[in-house]
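sry for the spam today, last one i promise. struct tokens for design, 576 residues
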């Protein structure tokens, strides 16, 4: 908050402060400043932001420290909220009334969206409507006290998805997967896949699964232990609440649920894009070759035998095949999280899904299990994957909500055996090799680093781990990468509106600005491998950002002047 803003707020709020409480109001304002700061604040900065005379400021600050409301780190000279707030928060939870606290958010959402907003909680094997607010005019009407099925409603699925494994197993054993419409999920395996998708996405959706003509979206409201204490849902006619509108609403609901409980949630990756800078480095050849609107486009790979680009939408979830000559994009819904696609030397495709590495058959859209390096590890999923020198699969993993560094890196050979190459990764991402295959690059997105290792071509041996490049959080986070024939490392910068190219020594060589905030991955393609393809995402972007960047979720292409390295296929012919 700037000083001018503080002064204006104080002026606007003077009439609201009871007589004789000016000092208290100043102390509360100071606490707000400390709480809203992105990082611990120093004395001089706090003084400036408060707009108070220094003697008054010093007296108030000392009082707040004495009462444990502010903590002073004398060694570093910084101030943060004190331990007393933690003690008070536990007392708040002891008497927490979800219905009363959520009322303001329900009213605000109903007025802004003009749709029905509902507050729910788990009631045995049903979701119970605790409260609701309806928009003006025609809409969906629900009744407080009504109980609805868990598996067929967004509110119910949001409650299920974030339960601990034991509670979820009990719910799945007790509920009947009754069919209400043609789109109702009546298969437990399919429901499990949908719940995994919900945990990764952060919100649940129901497209006419309970009632024909009614769509809904919902998020879990989590308590102090991280378990859901309720859910917040928006319901509306399918003619108004279309798929293109539901996903931005889901992002708004996540923020609303956090405001209700004051629990920031567990997602470690930022859901707020950085402000866009002037696009002075926009490549003149850059254009959107496929305005697809993917929720989380990823894993572009050029199929040199077909001269087509394969890629995935992790959250659709689907596998796509784009033909640059015709502009046609074929899409196959997978029914479960899919994070990477890799061609094999026998013409088949290998996918990284929530159930491991699986063969995909286009004709039948069927999946056949191949290998799973993390079978039995609950809460994790595979993420980015590529074929390395020698024809083996390299695949990383991550926790579904990116909250803990439980991810790893694996090398999987053609017989399905695997070896662990890295552990303790928060979000494993971009993989690539230098032109001589003696340097391996690997991204850990959450901590913002691109790692480099020495490697022996084709053997999978790694040594001399080091930081190749670091991307400051204020500039975004590194995502997928590729390496060109000159050894340049191209990295998509999530929330950074750009792609960076680094020289082999780790220095930043070039930036390509983009018209979208969330590029996700890059690869070279075209018959001569001179076209750089860039996938992007629109998941969790605020409505204002989507208005500024309507091509989010599209596939972009440019010709930066470098040539790529041909992708290796997965070698399986030698074992058949």
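last one done:
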């Amino acid at each position: 908050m700037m000083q001018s803003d503080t002064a204006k707020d104080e002026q606007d709020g003077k009439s609201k402060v009871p007589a004789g409480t000016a000092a208290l109001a100043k102390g509360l304002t100071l606490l707000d400043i400390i709480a809203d700061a992105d990082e611990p604040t120093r004395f001089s900065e706090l003084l400036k932001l408060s707009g108070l005379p220094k003697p008054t400021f010093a007296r108030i600050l000392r009082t707040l420290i004495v009462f444990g409301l502010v903590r002073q780190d004398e060694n570093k000279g910084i101030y943060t909220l004190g331990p007393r707030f933690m003690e008070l928060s536990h007392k708040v939870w002891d008497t927490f009334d979800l219905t009363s606290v959520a009322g303001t958010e329900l009213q605000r959402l109903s007025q802004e969206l003009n749709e029905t907003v509902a507050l729910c909680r788990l009631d045995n094997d049903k979701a119970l409507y605790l409260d609701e607010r309806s928009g003006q005019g025609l809409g969906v009407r629900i009744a407080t006290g009504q109980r609805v099925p868990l598996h067929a409603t967004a509110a119910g699925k949001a409650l299920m998805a974030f339960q601990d494994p034991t509670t979820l197993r009990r719910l799945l054993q007790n509920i009947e997967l009754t069919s209400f419409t043609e789109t109702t999920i009546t298969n437990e395996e399919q429901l499990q896949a949908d719940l995994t998708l919900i945990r990764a996405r952060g919100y649940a959706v129901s497209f006419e699964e309970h009632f024909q003509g009614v769509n809904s979206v919902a998020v879990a409201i989590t308590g102090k232990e991280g378990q859901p204490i309720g859910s917040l849902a928006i319901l509306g006619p399918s003619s108004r609440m279309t798929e293109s509108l539901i996903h931005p609403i889901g992002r708004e609901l996540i923020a609303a649920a956090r405001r209700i409980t004051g629990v920031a949630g567990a997602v470690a990756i930022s859901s707020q894009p950085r402000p866009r800078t002037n696009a002075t480095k926009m490549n003149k050849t850059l254009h959107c070759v496929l305005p697809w609107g993917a929720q989380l486009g990823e894993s572009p790979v050029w199929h040199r035998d077909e001269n087509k680009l394969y890629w995935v939408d992790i959250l659709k979830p689907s596998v796509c095949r784009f033909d640059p000559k015709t502009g046609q994009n074929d899409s196959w819904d997978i029914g479960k999280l899919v994070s990477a696609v890799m061609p094999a030397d026998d013409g088949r495709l290998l996918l990284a899904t929530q159930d491991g590495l699986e063969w995909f058959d286009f004709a039948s859209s069927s999946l056949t299990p191949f290998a799973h390096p993390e079978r039995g590890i609950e809460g994790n999923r595979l993420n980015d994957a590529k074929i390395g020198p020698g024809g083996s699969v390299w695949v990383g993993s991550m926790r579904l909500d990116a909250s803990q560094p439980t991810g790893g890196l694996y090398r999987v050979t053609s017989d399905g055996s695997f070896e662990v190459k890295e552990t303790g990764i928060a979000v494993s991402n971009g993989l690539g090799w230098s032109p001589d295959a003696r340097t391996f690059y690997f991204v850990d997105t959450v901590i913002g680093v691109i790692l480099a290792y020495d490697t022996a071509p084709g053997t999978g041996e790694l040594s001399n781990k080091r930081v190749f490049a670091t991307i400051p959080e204020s500039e975004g986070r590194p995502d997928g990468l590729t390496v060109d024939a000159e050894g340049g490392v191209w990295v998509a910068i999530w929330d950074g509106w750009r792609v960076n190219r680094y020289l082999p020594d780790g220095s930043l060589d070039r930036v390509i600005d983009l018209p979208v905030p969330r590029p996700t991955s890059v690869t070279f393609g075209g018959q001569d491998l001179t076209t750089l393809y860039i996938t992007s995402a629109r998941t969790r972007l605020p409505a204002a950002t989507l208005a500024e960047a309507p091509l989010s979720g599209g596939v972009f292409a440019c010709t930066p002047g470098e040539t790529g390295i041909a992708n290796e296929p997965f070698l399986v012919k030698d074992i058949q």
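The longest strand covers residues 228-237. ok im logging off now
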